[in-house]
Design brief:
- The complex is a heterodimer of chains A (about 160) and B (about 300).
- Chain A is α/β, with parallel strands linked by helices.
- Chain A is built from five helices and five strands; from the N terminus they run H-E-H-E-E-H-E-H-E-H.
- Chain A has one domain: Rossmann fold (3-Layer(aba) Sandwich), CATH 3.40.50.
- In chain A, strands 2-1-3-4-5 form a five-stranded parallel sheet.
- In chain A, helix 3 links the parallel strand 3 and strand 4.
- The model of chain B has no long low-confidence stretch (mean pLDDT about 85).
- Chain B has one domain.
- With about 300 residues, chain B is mainly α.
- Chain B is built from eleven helices and no strands.
- The chains are: A alpha/beta (about 160), B mainly alpha (about 300).
Chain lengths: ~160, ~300
Amino acid sequence: MSATEHGLLYRLVERARRRSVWLYHFNAGACNGCDIEFISCLTPRYDMEQAGIRLEGSPRHADVLCVSGPVTRNTRAALETIYEQLPEPKVVVALGSCPATCNVFAGSPVVDGPIDKIVPVDIYVPGCPPRPHAILDGVGRAIEKLAQRKAAAEAGEE
Amino acid sequence: MSVVRAFFALLIFPGLLYALPVGWLMMGIARKLKARCQRRIGPPLCQPFWDAVKLLAKIPVRRRSNEVPLYIGLPLMAVATAVGALAMLPVFRGESSFVGDMIVLVGLLEMPPLCFILAGYASRSIYGEVGATREAVVSIASNVPFLAALVAMGTAAGSMRISQIVSSTPWIVRVPALLTILFCMPIKMRLNPFSLANAEQEVLAGPLTEFDGPRLGLWEIAHALEWVALTGFTVALAIPVRSGLWYVDAPVFVLLSIALVVPLTLLASATGRLKLGQATRLMWKWGGAAAVLALAAAFFVRGGGH
């Protein structure tokens, strides 16, 4: 379906979803490196907020779930709960190499990852830790996916 | 005629149609100004509008059916009472004023924070409960000086009619009373030195932690309306005369309401969050002192009149 086929309200909502993206950051046993780089995206140098992106404290408020860390056994249940708590439409971003491959923790008995065994992942941001530019790029791709996801969901309902 | 006037006040000015865009604009100004103070670029001014649209269009997570009425009813009540308070603001010369309408107005202004507290407890999240407790303690601390200042104005004017209070409170009472009300403003708007209830990164989102999608969107709308109502209330009490011409009174009211957001935001971005004990102590001490000053002046004025 092309955008012109939809009504004014549909286009308004789609625009709002692109312009107002709230993130929730979940540390699934990360070494804190990715977390530091992630937070630096909110600082005056990178200032994600100018694109309407905001870091939220509660997963229920968020659109994008950003996960760092290899998903340890202790954090697995929390990750599953938090994934369920995000309202649709939602996108999951895996920050750094740990959630993607378990990185240096691969094979450890206390690691349940990689993350795609537990929740579906949309965007991988590689790096150990990824640079803030890479994270911003990942969030940008997540926003695109958010808009597409909504269109797909509506097409499925109809 | 008065029914038409009431509907106009509720739905158009200073009600919903005026307050919603202006509330979003105020919040946008606050976010932008705060960002500029931190040397960031900050979100566009219309950001709160996009946030609200996005939240209203989200699909909330299914909840147990007995929780849903509370989760929708409380924010709806906050929106409704905020609109009611807005409609009662004395923007124009008060033909529709009735005896004791100040008490109704203050009651309506106090309803959204009450709904906020109830929402925190109803959500049964630990963050919600901590946030609600903080909001309750802080709002008691701010309401004692706030109400004392209003009582002082009412005593000096000899009436609890809004139109009378606005027009005939002497300046010796009005100045300390307004200072007290201004002092309470950051608490009532949950702005930074007193942002204890919704302390982000501390108790997550306070009472609203468990709200998602459209239910959270309703709260965002209620907050926008609350901002307009509270700034409008202060401004309306501060302007002593009404010209009687709508095209003079309304723009003055609107511009001053929006201008009031600027010092409040500057204060919020210049300060860090206080602890609960510090905030209440500050309020009881200095808010109380200003309120006592206003009350003393009011009784002095009344005593002189007899």
